[in-house]
Amino acid sequence: MILKKSNTEDIPGTIIFNGTRAIKGYALNKMCFSFNSAENRDAYRRNEDAYCDKFELTEEQRQALKHRNVRELLEAGGNIYYLAKWAGIFGMNVQQIGAQQRGMTEEEFKEMLVRAGGLAMARVIGGIATSHVPSIGKAIARRLENDPLWKPFFDGYKPVHAWLDEVQPDLAVVVYNDHGLNFFLDKMPTFAVGAAAEYKNADEGWGLPVVAPYSGDPRFSWHLIESLVADEFDITTCQEMLVDHAFTVPMSLLWPKPGRHPIPTVPIAINTVQFPLPSPARCYKLGKAIGRAIESYKQDIRVLVVATGGLSHQLDGDRAGYINKKFDLLCLQKMVNDPEALARYSVHELVRDAGAQGVELLMWFVMRGAMTGQVTEKHHSYHVPISNTAAAVMVLENKTAGSDKWLDQSLMARL
Ligand code: DHB
Ligand code: FE
């Protein structure tokens, strides 16, 4: 039974060199075994085809050898110990072999290894994007979550709560747009990063109750700021920052239990008030820089990236009340699988297709860009209308090398 288990290949990204592979790759491995001898290595260098002929390799094996592709050679039955002797003929070492298999540059691969042995590092555990319509805040204040009109909308957040319970983030970077509570036209930063110990909410004239302050994490904020500036994002730093409904409403939606706010937050405000606005591509790149910043923070914390705003809506002009469901559904899909294609949209096209205030989608691009690894969509829901807006929420889980939950769990169980 134990043997049988070790023969299965249910550990992602892992090849078990079992009997099936040993049979399939016998000739290939035999050839590689022959490269223990310098004489044979020279003979292979002189005439690869002739050397392969001697071992009666399959076409698949010959092609994989020609491609110098270790993944293909493993698929063709190669065993990594023997393949390494073959790779050595071309001066390839095991780090280069590793990088090739992971689709990384050698530098990236080395960096990953150094990180694994270094100090504990922060991780991006995932992202949540959600609408932030003020009327949601009013409904929460009036406890209307189970009201027949509101229930379908609020029910869309139940899977989000279940996911948050599971992943237990330690800190949230919250990307939102200020609607004229903290910033006025006298000074309008494109990107502003909070660096405060606490972020207060205040009366913004929208009829929402003022909520308790949110705790910050200045040490993390300054790391983020330093990293972003080093990455050529010349952001504005804010040691005082009032957060408006675009911050508070999503926080109440994600953590609905009244009382103290559960985790520290770092707000990042993106200008959507006064044109010119940053492009979707720029916001996506900012997200990437945020992801890099988080994962270079030397503390073992689980970081969630939250984006607020959207989807399609327009509050002003003859097109007030504009909703574009087709576009929204495309966005929800592309945001997961093809964000770079979506990021080719211009701001003008966003206004055209998502409405004037639909540019709040820019926040979603930042969140998506911050996902550093393999992204899985855990949930989304879409509800029209909430006030004038097509409301949506999306949960993306981010998996990087070494972030497997089973590893922690099985270690804990054994200790
Ligand atoms: C509405 C939507 C928003 O994104 C916002 O910031 C304010 C109001 C609305 O639809 O009412
Ligand atoms: Fe808004």
Describe the 3D structure.
With 415 residues, the chain is α/β, with parallel strands linked by helices. It has two domains: 19-115, Protocatechuate 4,5-dioxygenase, Chain A (Orthogonal Bundle); 123-414, Protocatechuate 4,5-dioxygenase, Chain B. It has 21 helices and ten strands. It has helices spanning 2-7, 19-24, 26-33, 38-46, 48-55, 59-66, 70-75, 80-89, 94-102, 106-117, 134-141, 151-155, 158-167, 218-230, 245-254, 280-294, 325-337, 339-342, 347-354, 361-369, 405-414, and strands at 123-130, 171-176, 191-194, 198-199, 214-215, 236-238, 265-270, 302-308, 374-386, 389-399. The strands form two sheets. Strands 6-3-7-2-8-1-10-9 form an eight-stranded mixed sheet, with helices on both faces. Helix 3 crosses helix 8 and helix 4 packs across helix 5. The longest helix has 15 residues, at 280-294. The chain starts with a helix and ends with a helix. 38% of the residues are buried. The structure holds 3,4-dihydroxybenzoic acid and fe (iii) ion. 3,4-dihydroxybenzoic acid binds at residues 132-135, 179, 246, 313, 357, 360, 387-389.
Describe what is shown at a glance:
With 415 residues, the chain is of the alpha/beta class.
Within CATH, the superfamily of the largest domain carries the name LigB-like
Query: CATH class of the largest domain, please?
Result: Alpha Beta
Small molecules bound in the structure, each named once = 3,4-dihydroxybenzoic acid, fe (iii) ion
In CATH terms, what is the fold-level topology of the largest domain?
Protocatechuate 4,5-dioxygenase, Chain B
Radius of gyration: 26 Å
First and last CA, distance: 25 Å
Shape: elongated
Structure summary, number of beta strands: 10
Q: What share of the residues does DSSP label as strand, in percent? A: 5-15%
- Biggest β-sheet strands, sense, barrel: 8 strands, mixed
| Mean pLDDT rating | 93
Helical coverage, percent range: 40-55%
| Poorly predicted parts | 1-5
Figure out the total of helices. 21
Compute the number of structural domains: 2
CATH architecture assignment of the largest domain: 3-Layer(aba) Sandwich
The secondary structure category is: alpha/beta
Adjacency order of strands in the biggest sheet: 6-3-7-2-8-1-10-9
